Amino acid sequence: MPNIRKVAELAGVSVATVSRTLKTPERVSPQTRDRVHSAVEQAGYRPNLMAVQFRSRKTRNLVVLVPVIANVFFARVISGIQEAAQSFNYRVLLCDTRGREEVETAYAELVHAHQADGVIQLRAFNPFGETCRHGDSLPPMVNACEVLDAPPCPSVRLDNRAAARAMTEHLLALGHRRIGLIKGPQGSPLTRERIAGYEDALREAGIAPDPELLCRGNFTLQAGYEAAGLLMRGADRPTAIFCENDEMAIGAIQRIRQCGFRVPQDVSVAGFDDIPFAAFCDPPLTTIAQPAEAFGRHAVEMLVAQFEQRPLDTPHLILAYSLVVRGSTAAAPRCPA
Prior knowledge:
The longest helix has 16 residues, at 72-87. The strands form 3 sheets. A 6-stranded parallel beta sheet has the order 2-1-3-4-5-11, sandwiched between helices. It is elongated and about 80 Å long. Helix 1 crosses helix 2 (15-23) and helix 5 runs parallel beside helix 11 (292-307). Strand 8 (240-243), helix 10 (246-258) and strand 9 (268-270) form a beta-alpha-beta unit. It is an alpha/beta fold and 337 residues long. The chain contains 11 helices and 12 strands.
């Protein structure tokens, strides 16, 4: 059977370098990693993974807690996690938690049971809360996307308040004064931050926020569809609707049309996330673009840094957003029907 010396010969490196690449790939250059992995494949070498894990005290498993795996935005974040994990030679254990705390806590226990090395949490909940209540240090974890208000661990997030304010200012600049908001899940930090940004922009424009223009949602197509129906049924309907994610915006456009109105001639609609469908719906959706894959990549990099006990230059990273203007928003109608 091929052995590690054959791999070293094919890769043109030392046996120690091959061993280091297999055990701790983050400690070697990407070029060396590629050469060693190619040599491993060429030689048909299969290292004893159990022995490697025992010596290094690493499982090379990462637990990823996802609130809703069917959500298109989270799917893009997972793609970034998978890409980065593979580059560091880690495996991803994916858990669709549906926001259930007991499920998240159970999966986090894999770290204590030495079946995983760390956790990437995409929701504002600490799954180690019970085990860390007596002052024990938090196991390796990174909180991404929807972060804890007082994060006890490294985090990757967007300035959701500033982004929501930018979108609302865009609608105000088009002449809209009655702007509806379809919110995200109740209790979510994302929902609170985006409401705050929306209200910041209204107050800056001298417009008092109207509670009647706020509708509850949950980031699904159905929620956007139903909320838009409620907003459009009154005589004093909004001329623009800002949805806290793209899926709700797409559902809202469908309902607005069923109510007999045109988008954007009668009602402008805006979203948040810039999922792939946003550019291809009819009309193409104006939205806030956030770098979903980058959330995943940075989360893995931060987690690996914890494994190596390396200090982070930016433990709480805020990623950039951009306002993408497409055909679903236009100047406010002079006399709303």
